[in-house]
Amino acid sequence: MTGLSAFNKFTGTLKEEGQLMPVLFIGHGSPMNGIEDNDLTQRWKQMAAEIPVPKAVLVVSAHWLSKGTRITAMDFPQTIHDFGGFPNALFEVQYPAPGDPALARETASLITSTQVEQDHDWGLDHGTWTIIRHMYPEATIPVLQLSIDYTKGPQYHYDLAKELYNLRKKGVLIVGSGNMVHNLRMVAWDKLTADAYGYDWALQMNTKFKELISAGEHQSLIRYESLGKEALLAIPTPEHYLPLLYTLGLKGESDPVSFFNDKAVAGSLTMTSVKFG
Hints:
The chain has helices spanning 3-10, 39-50, 88-91, 101-110, 126-135, 154-162, 165-168, 200-215, 218-222, 229-234, 242-250; strands at 23-27, 56-66, 69-72, 116-119, 143-149, 172-178, 257-260, 264-265, 269-270, 273-276. The chain is of the alpha/beta class. It has a single domain, classed as LigB-like (Protocatechuate 4,5-dioxygenase, Chain B). The strands form three sheets. The chain has a six-stranded mixed beta sheet, with helices on both faces. A two-stranded parallel sheet has the order 3-4. The chain has a two-stranded antiparallel ribbon with strand order 8-9. Strand 8 (264-265) and strand 9 (269-270) form a beta hairpin. Helix 2 (39-50) crosses helix 5 and helix 6 (154-162) packs parallel to helix 11. It is globular, with a radius of gyration of 18 Å. It comes from Pontibacter ruber. It is an enzyme of class 1 (oxidoreductase). Belongs to the DODA-type extradiol aromatic ring-opening dioxygenase family. Its cofactor is Zn(2+).
C-alpha cells in the first residue's frame, strides 16, 4: 500500500472501535536510534507487533515547542532533520508517512481549553520519525504531531491531554516522545558506548518516577519540582518531560501500566518508556 492510498483510506471522521488503543511514552534518546538496530529500536518494533494496528499515530514530541498549541495538518508532512553533527546517513533518511488533515481538524475540535492552530509548515521531527519508522517501516499509517505550548505549565499539559481521550476509542495511537531523565549538560561522553550507565541521581529519579507512575500519583509527577534536587537535575528544562504528562493525562482508570527499555545511558539520560493499556 502506498502512502497516498493509506492517506485516502484513513482520511475522514474515525469511528469508535470496540477497544481502547494503548498510550505510549517512549524515551527516544539519540537521533542515531533512527537508523540503528539495537535493543531499544528492536523493542519499538516488538511493541508495534504487540498492539493493535492503529488507524493513525499522534505524537507529542519534545522537539516541537510553540507559542500556543498547533497540530500538523498537511497531506504529507516533511521529514525534519533537526540536529547536527551526525553521519550523513541520518540526514538522508526520509519517512514519507501521510498526514491526515481531517483527523487534524477533528483533534483540534476535541480541545476546548485552547484554540488549536492547524499547521502546514512543520512536519515530523526526530522525536517522531526516529521511533515511528521502526514501528511502522512501510510508512502507510498517517502520522500527526501535536506541539507543546512552551508558555504553559505542567498542569496545563496534563489537563489538555485528557481532552484527547476520545481518540483512543477511535484507533489512534498517541505517543509521548521525550525522556524522563534528560540532562545533556551532564552527559558522560566517555560512557556513550556503554550498554547502560547512569549517575546515582539519575537512577534514583528514574526509580522514583516509575514508583509514582505505578501508584497513579499524577499530582506528584506534575509538581516534579517539589521532588527534590535530584528531580531538578533530571529535568533542568521541561520539554523532554512534558510528553510524559500527556500520556499520564490519557491514562484510563483501569489501564495497566508496564515499563520497557528501562535503562540509563550516558550517565544523565534514561530511555525508560511506559505503556498504558
